[in-house]
């Protein structure tokens, strides 16, 4: 098999987190009764006039600024005509155009950065972000009446993010999709929940014989709605195109779907061209003229973004790159840690507790991260109790298990269970001497230079003290005895 180089681009649709629809006042609500939120505008009755949702425009601009885009202050709406049973209007209002004069999406020419597992940072261009409305939904069931139509989703605001074909492997495609999802969550522009269909990804891929050869013919794979499926679908299509070219055949431009069970892509339709949609400027709308002051206000109130937070965690808290990565990936975990770190004497130790203890317990917890009873200040307090020498690390794990289960304050648990660390040197010395007497033979060997036995003695003393002895003092006493 010859070696080919993949060229990949992504198109990501995300549902904006507005309360109401793109061009009418109908509420956006999922998991409700069918056809509850509809009106003449979103059903496309003749004569009904659409009015753009200001919040949706604000969100699109916020997303554009977070992705370093230029904002078009004179954007345009176009009508994309097509027939489909889930689209009563027979067209979709969008910002793509067919002809360049009609093509004025709200955002253009941005970029984001991804960091590969090998440490290489790559910049991926964002061609454009445009706004549009969603179609309705067909619901198929096994009843004699068959298929049903639910118009609740008609007119829901979407942004489509289109990347440049800058992605060079399925791994980079996954990192790009993850980064976009993360930015959607950090900016609050979308709930970006894949299970609810808030975010959907299409991937296009072509291959070429060398890294500077012209692009090959591409296939577009629709609806890759998990990171795993995106990676597997692109890999399967890469192999298929490789086999095709090796056999002396040509790759056909087409739209495909991916079947995860068979791990195969298959053709849905040969690629449609822009003329098929008969785009024209939307006659019911004027241009979307945006006040520059509105854009500046959004820029000024942009929240901290993932890359900036990652850098802050490295610099301010001295976290390792791995820890900073884990603690910025998911905004909920990140905000939780950040809140805890504010009152913590040792954020680096706190990071360990969040990653190894808290996130491990959360995996087993019904309801996931949202269901945890421990609040950030409590874990911060637990770490401070260790730092202050009130309890040792081993006892802290016991306290943590209790906190996680009950949501009680660490101070209360320590007090109730009498877990305060013993730091009284005389008391510890007494325990050490008891242990030494009981294990006279081993102690003789230890004194004679068998250093490995120190661990045994520390263990025994800790056991006798119910885990409460300060391990540092125990070590000091044993060192003294060995020398003396
Ligand atoms: Zn409506």
Verbal overview:
By secondary structure, the chain is an alpha+beta fold. The chain has three domains: 5-298, no CATH class; 304-417, no CATH class; 425-483, Arc Repressor Mutant, subunit A (Orthogonal Bundle), CATH 1.10.10.410. The protein contains 16 helices and 16 strands. It has helices at 40-43, 54-66, 170-187, 227-246, 292-300, 306-317, 321-329, 331-341, 347-364, 376-387, 393-406, 410-417, 425-438, 440-447, 453-464, 471-483; strands at residues 5-15, 70-71, 74-75, 78-81, 91-94, 107-115, 121-133, 137-140, 147-150, 157-163, 199-208, 219-221, 254-259, 264-270, 280-281, 288-289. The strands form four sheets. A nine-stranded mixed beta sheet has the order 2-6-7-10-1-11-12-13-14. A three-stranded antiparallel beta sheet has the order 5-4-15, with no helix packed on it. A hairpin with a 5-residue loop joins strand 6 (107-115) and strand 7 (121-133). The radius of gyration is 30 Å and the shape is elongated. The structure holds zinc ion. The site of zinc ion (ZN) has 8 residues, from helix 1. It is an enzyme of class 6 (ligase). This is Aspartyl/glutamyl-tRNA(Asn/Gln) amidotransferase subunit B. Heterotrimer of A, B and C subunits. One of its GO terms (molecular function) is transferase activity. It comes from Hallerella succinigenes.
Task: Provide key terms for this protein.
single chain, 484 residues, alpha+beta, Arc Repressor Mutant, subunit A, 3 domains, nine-stranded mixed β-sheet, three-stranded antiparallel β-sheet, 16 helices, 16 strands, 40% helix, 19% strand, elongated, binds zinc ion, asparaginyl-tRNA synthase (glutamine-hydrolyzing) activity
């Amino acid at each position: 098999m010859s070696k080919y180089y993949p060229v990949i681009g992504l198109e990501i649709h995300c549902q904006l987190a507005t309360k109401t629809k793109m061009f009418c006042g109908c509420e956006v609500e999922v998991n409700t009764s069918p056809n509850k939120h509809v009106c003449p505008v979103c059903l496309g009755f003749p004569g009904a006039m659409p009015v753009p949702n200001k919040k949706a425009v604000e969100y699109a601009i916020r997303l554009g600024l977070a992705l370093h885009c230029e904002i078009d202050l004179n954007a345009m709406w176009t009508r994309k005509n097509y027939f489909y049973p889930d689209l009563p209007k027979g067209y979709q209002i969008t910002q793509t155009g067919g002809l360049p004069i009609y093509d004025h999406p709200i955002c253009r020419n941005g970029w984001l950065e991804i960091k590969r597992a090998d440490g290489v940072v790559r910049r991926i261009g964002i061609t454009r972000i445009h706004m549009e409305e969603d179609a309705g939904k067909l619901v198929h069931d096994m009843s004699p009446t068959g298929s049903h139509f639910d118009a609740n989703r008609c007119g829901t605001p979407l942004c489509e993010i289109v990347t440049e074909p800058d992605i060079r492997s399925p791994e980079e495609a996954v990192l790009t999709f993850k980064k976009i999802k993360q930015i959607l969550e950090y900016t609050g522009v979308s709930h970006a929940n894949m299970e609810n269909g808030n975010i959907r990804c299409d991937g296009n891929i072509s291959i070429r014989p060398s890294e500077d050869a012209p692009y090959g013919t591409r296939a577009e794979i629709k609806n890759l709605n998990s990171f795993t499926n995106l990676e597997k679908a692109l890999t399967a299509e890469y192999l298929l195109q490789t086999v095709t070219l090796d056999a002396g055949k040509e790759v056909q431009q087409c739209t495909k779907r991916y079947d995860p069970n068979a791990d195969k892509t298959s053709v849905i339709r040969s690629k449609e061209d822009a003329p098929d949609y008969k785009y024209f400027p939307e006659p019911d709308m004027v241009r979307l003229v945006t006040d520059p002051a509105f854009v500046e206000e959004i820029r000024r109130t942009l929240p901290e973004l993932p890359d900036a937070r990652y850098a802050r965690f490295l610099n301010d808290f001295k976290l390792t790159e791995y820890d900073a990565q884990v603690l910025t990936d998911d905004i909920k975990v990140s905000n939780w840690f950040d809140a805890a770190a504010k009152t913590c004497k040792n954020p680096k130790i706190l990071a360990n507790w969040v990653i190894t203890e808290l996130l491990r317990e959360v995996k087993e917890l019904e309801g996931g991260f949202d269901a945890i009873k421990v609040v950030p200040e409590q874990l911060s307090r637990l770490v401070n109790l260790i730092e202050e020498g009130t309890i040792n690390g081993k006892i802290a794990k016991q306290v943590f298990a209790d906190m996680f289960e009950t949501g009680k304050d660490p101070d209360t648990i320590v007090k109730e269970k009498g877990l305060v660390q013993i730091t009284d040197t005389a008391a510890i010395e007494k325990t050490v001497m008891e242990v030494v007497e009981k294990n006279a033979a081993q102690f003789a060997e230890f004194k004679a230079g068998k250093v490995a036995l120190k661990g045994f003695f520390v263990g025994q003393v800790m056991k006798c003290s119910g885990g409460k002895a300060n391990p540092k003092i125990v070590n000091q006493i044993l060192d003294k005895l060995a020398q003396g």
